Amino acid sequence: MLLIVGFALCVLAPGCSATDTDIALDAKATLNHRIQSLDLLVFVFLLALTVLTIWLFKHHRVSWLHETGLAVIYGLIVGAIIRYAGTSATLVHMQVEPQGVPTYSDKLPPDTLWFRYPVNQTNGTKPPEGIKTYAYVFRGQVHDVDENEIDLKATFDPEVFFNIILPPIIFYAGYSLKKKYFFRNLGAILTFAIVGTTLSAFLIGGFMYGCVKLMPKYLSSSFTFLDSLYFGALISPTDPLTILAIFNDLRVDVNLYALVLGESVLNDAVAIVLSGAIQNYGEHYSNTGEFETTAFLRSLSDFFSIFLLSLMIGAAMGCLTALMTKFTRVRDFPLLESALFVLMSYSTFLLAEATELTGVVAVLFCGICQAHYTYNNLSEDSRQRTKQIFELLNFLAENFIFSYIGVSMFTFPKHHFDAGFIITAFICAAIGRAVNVYPLSWLLNIKRKPKISTNFQHMLFFAGLRGAMSFALAIRNTVSDERQTMLTATSLIVIFTVVIQGGAANFLLNWLKIPVGVDDETEQLNNYQVHSDVEGGGVNRNKMRLSGGTDTNLDTPVDGTNGSLGGASGGRRRNSHEKAILARIWGNFDTKYMKPLLTHSRPTLLETLPVCCNPIARLLTTTQQLTQDGSEFRRVDSDSDICIDNDTGNGLSQDGSGAAPGVGRRNSLSRMEILEHVQSPVSTRIRLLGFYGKKL
Fold first, then answer.
1. Considering 38, 282, 489, 672, which has the largest number of Cβ atoms within 10 A of its Cβ?
2. CA 678 to CA 685: how far, in whole Å?
3. Using an 8 Å Cβ cutoff, are 493 and 470 in contact?
4. How much of the chain exceeds pLDDT 90, in percent?
5. 539 — phi, psi (to 5°)?
6. Which residues, including other chains, have CB under 8 Å from residue 415's CB and lie 6 or more apart?
7. Are residues 401 and 515 in the same domain?
8. Is 655 exposed, middle or buried (0-12, 13-18, 19+ CB in 10 A)?
9. Considering 523, 546, 570, which residue would you say is the last residue of a domain?
10. What torsion, rounded to 10 degrees, do the Cα atoms 187, 193, 198, 201 define?
11. Where does the record place the region Disordered (predicted)?
């Protein structure tokens, strides 16, 4: 037996060195696996701790701190523990000098380094047994040669945020959007989100550039105007999760809620496209780095083209999913249906990014289209499943990012603290937000009804919290000193606004005397402004006050011109501010063509398209559309109150059945008229019953 073992050792001796190498590499791979598992365990623990604390706060009705603020605070605590109480095993470094003339530039370091390593060369005279080549991936510029293992702990590739964490957050923002109030305030939302965000970005960039030039030379000499504009673009988007959660819990005025939510949803998309346009200006168009008119116009063209093309891709993918679910029987298998829904939604983001567009814009509008069209084609199981899946993913992703912001303040090796820059960034961010809100509100109030009141404007200014999008844009590139300074300032602004501003939201609501406890239906009545005219404790029995402040006789019909519910005027008279004009135009087109094409709604394309298009219309109309009752679709359509309303007098009702606009449709006003009837004196009740008897 000993002879056999000795013979085997002699035969296998030449391969021992290779085996030793494999064992060492396996040990290193195991160590890396343990470190990465520890990283994930830390964040899972943080999320679990946040969830338990949220439950405790809700149980004791604590509303001064939101879960995002909790996640940041817990992240700061855990980051400090990792930094100062963890191990500090020094990493092994080897300095390598390039031979010959480098083929790369200072601005763009090589992606990988190929290190040729001699095998078993014990001295300079003995030739190596072989040459092995190792590839090392570029990590960034080294500032501290004594880096240790802490630099590898609790840090992630920035692309993880853009490709994995951000898509479910942005998609859920579009998928759960309350379109009824969004479209009612569409003009103001677009003004704040597009004009306001762009104006704020350029204003912050200009102020920061002027202030940076007064700072120490090491920063002022390297900080360009484009760097300042990029910082303005990344710090302009808002993420008022804390404010919105409080608004939802306290049932704040729905118009204020819609303005804050709508702006935060769209300005994320605007900010990422704007930052990309600024980068294109510096990288592709400008030769000197200074302002050039031609380069500016090309970047401006990029901004609009990328935004619109990304929007079209998102809408097209949403419509494609709707067609798949309409013309196939995949709904018979709810699991497959839900899987198709999720995959098509995520592929929208990847498709836009792969075609050099913006995935954030694409997935946002994909979510809006999925909610408006595809949702109506899904089975009941898939509806519940998709809502719950994306709500859960959004919750976990948001809290993960805020936890990571706290942890990275101590563990991320690329922070660069400069007190002057940080203070200036706070001041400029506040000025930019003020310019976004107050001047644009004044312009909107010239034509807008109802006006954006002063206390609403103060709340809009205060709701300018920074969050996930600002941090993701800041951490994406941290190679230079300027970008590292931006990251540090952005992280501190996010932490301050989420914890301090978010915590003070309840106090500010009381101080500004903003009404809370407003029910959606009551708010709808307020938009019509229909109520009894009570004067001095008495009731003017013959008058009913409308939104414009004018009085109308109760005996004068509101629906139609002659008192009929389906008169020639086309139904109930609406106030001009009930819906934005763009929403009214789109709602009419959507009711006639888009809904019948992409869902099982009525009227069908056979009824809305010209007679010459009947063969195509029949091909695009399902048997379910032809046989179902129109009320069936209205019952399951969760978002059509505003989007498929039809007030143009074409004789089509909301349910598409072709009935007159006041008949056979879910009308929130009629419910409020019942409330008005119940709360009015007897004589007024009689008049209301006489006029609205058919509706009741």
1. 489
2. 7
3. yes
4. 22
5. -120, 130
6. 408, 409, 484, 487, 488, 491
7. yes
8. buried
9. 523
10. 150
11. 546-575
* pTM given for the model: 0.76
d(CA 453, CA 457): 6
Query: Which amino acid, one-letter code, is at 358?
Result: T
37 is a domain residue: no
Last residue of a domain, one of 475, 502, 523: 523
Are 484 and 599 in a shared domain?
no
Residue 182 domain flag: yes
CA 367/CA 177 separation, integer angstroms? 9
- Angle, alpha carbons 327-330-332 (nearest 5°): 120
| 468 and 360 Cβ atoms separated by less than 8 Å | no
Task: Answer for the pair 167, 385: CB distance below 8 angstroms, yes or no.
Answer: no
In the chain, how many domains are there?
2
Tell me, yes or no, whether 131 lies in a domain: no
* Residues 591 and 504 placed together within one structural domain of the fold: no
CA distance 651 to 653: 6
d(CA 152, CA 261): 37
On whether both 514 and 591 belong to a single domain, the answer is no
CA neighbor of 341 nearest in space, from 392, 381, 290, 297: 381
pLDDT tens, residue by residue, 107-150 = 566 777 777 767 665 555 666 666 777 777 766 665 554 454 55
Query: What is the three-class DSSP state of 686?
Result: helix
How big is the chain, counted in residues? 696
Question: Residue written as tokens 């072709």?
Answer: 658
Cα distance between residue 426 and residue 389, in whole Å: 36
**Which one, of 75, 37, 6, 40, lies nearest residue 498 by Cα?**
75
For residue 567, how many other CB atoms are within 10 A of its CB? 17
pLDDT band at 503 (very low <50, low <70, confident <90, very high): confident
The answer to the question of residue 184 being in a domain is: yes
Helix (H) or strand (E) holding 175, with range, is helix 166-175
pLDDT of residue 301: 86
E strands within 109-240?
112-119, 130-137
* Type and span of the H or E element at 545: strand 538-545
Residue 292 identity (one-letter amino acid) = E
Which token pair is 282?
């510096």
Q: In what order do the strands lie in the sheet with 531-535?
A: 531-535, 538-545, 551-553
Residues 168 and 259 in one domain: yes
User: Which region, left, alpha or beta, applies to residue 403 given φ > 0 means left and ψ of -120 to 50 means alpha?
Assistant: alpha
Integer Cα distance of 481 and 221 in angstroms: 11
Q: Which domain holds residue 188?
A: 158-282+394-523
State the residue for tokens 């780095």. Answer: 289
